[in-house]
Amino acid sequence: MPVGHTGGVDIPVGLGTGAILVVAYLLGTLPSAQLVAGRRGVDPTTEGSGNPGATNVYRTAGRGAGVAVFLADAGKGVIATALGLAFCGRALGLACWAAATLGHVLPATRRFRGGKGVATGGGGAVVLFPIIGSAIVVLFALVARLSGKASLGSVTICIALPVSVAATGRGWPDFLVASGICLLVLVRHRANIARLVSGQEQGWGR
C-alpha cells in the first residue's frame, strides 16, 4: 500500500485520505448557529424557522449573529476543502467539499438535523473554483438583496454553479460533485421553493 510521510511517520495513503474525509465531515457538523445564537439566549432549532443557519439566526438573534454564522459556516467549507487539496490534490479536495457540506446538512452528532448547506458549500466552491465561486457569492448577495429573500438567492446559485462549472470545461468529477452538492441544497430548500412559487416566502429580515 502506498504511504505518505508526515512528521517522521509513514501513513498509508488510503488510511490518510479516509481520515481527512472524516475530519472534513466533522468540521461540517460544528454547530455554528447554535454556538453563536446561544450566546444571545436564542436556540435557532426551536425559534423562527427552526433551521440552524445564518438566515434564521439573522432573524432571531440579529444581523451581527447572522453574519457571524454565515462566515463560520463558509469557513467550514473553506478549511475542509483546502485540507483535502493540500493533502492529496483536487480529487480529495472535491471529496472533502462534499463531506463538509454533508456534515453540515446531515450531522450525525445532532441526529442528522442540520442546516441547508449554502454557506458551507459556497466556501468550498470558492477554494476549488476561485473565480466562479466568488461570482456566485456576489450573485447570491445581489439576488437576496434585491428580492429580500435569501432562499431565492440560494436556489439561483444552485443552478448557476454547476452550469458555470460545465461551461468552463473543468471535467466530469468537478461537474458531478458540484451538481450533487447543489442538488442536496435544493432538496433542503424544497419547502422554501414551494413558498416561493406560491408567493408566501418570507423575507430574510422577517
Keywords for this entry:
globular, 206 residues, mainly alpha, single chain, two-stranded antiparallel sheet, disordered N terminus
Helicity range: over 70%
Q: Shape, please?
A: globular
| Strand composition percent | under 5%
What summary fits the major beta sheet? 2 strands, antiparallel
What do these coordinates show?
With 206 residues, this protein is mainly α. It has one domain (3-198). It is built from ten helices and two strands, in the order ββαααααααααα. The chain has helices at 13-29, 32-38, 54-61, 63-88, 90-105, 118-128, 130-147, 150-167, 172-188, 190-198; strands spanning 3-6, 9-12. A two-stranded antiparallel ribbon has the order 1-2. β1 (3-6) and β2 (9-12) form a beta hairpin. α1 runs antiparallel to α4 (63-88) and α3 (54-61) runs antiparallel to α4 (63-88). The longest helix is centred in the middle third of the chain and has 26 residues, at 63-88. It is globular. 47% of the residues are buried. Mean pLDDT is 91; it is low at 1-11.
